[in-house]
Amino acid sequence: MSITLWTRRDPFAEFDALVRRSFGPVATRPAATSPVATRSFRPAAEVTRDGDDAVVRLEVPGVDVEKDVTVEVADGQLVVHGERRDERTEERDGRNFSEVRYGSFRRTFALPEHLTADAVTASYDAGVLSVRVAGAYAAPAGAQPRRIAISTGAAETPAVTTAEEQTA
């Protein structure tokens, strides 16, 4: 006679084990000097179009944006960098548990050549930093559309004409 042992599956425990295996020692707070503690986090970003403007949204909850976040335009790029600080001092039973990442971050986004820092504004609300780039999708001032002729023969050279020449 054989004895069969039945065990009940716990999907939540399986998921917890999967997360712990995937992210390793992050589940327990490491010492401040360990390499795990110095890992940075990368805030989620979303870039959307609002008319001719581009709107960049970054999720940075728990960050003091006035003190710890900088928005700059440098070398044709929008640069957002800052730091999420762990300022907690509370300790329970000598062990801490945290799945929140702390550290510095830096996100860069390419800007059209014709934009300057004057076209950029930023605001913060409910953990989301919104950066509006005015005119990001607008054609630069003075630029005229140009039509490029399509050649179909082997020896033809395509001609370049402006929109004004085409209507004349």
UniProtKB/TrEMBL annotation:
Q: What family does the Swiss-Prot or TrEMBL record give for this protein?
A: Belongs to the small heat shock protein (HSP20) family.
Q: Which Pfam families match?
A: HSP20
Domain (SHSP): residue spans on this chain: 36-151
Q: What is this protein called?
A: Molecular chaperone IbpA, HSP20 family
**What InterPro entries does the record tag this protein with?**
A-crystallin/Hsp20_dom (IPR002068), HSP20-like_chaperone (IPR008978), Small_HSP (IPR031107)
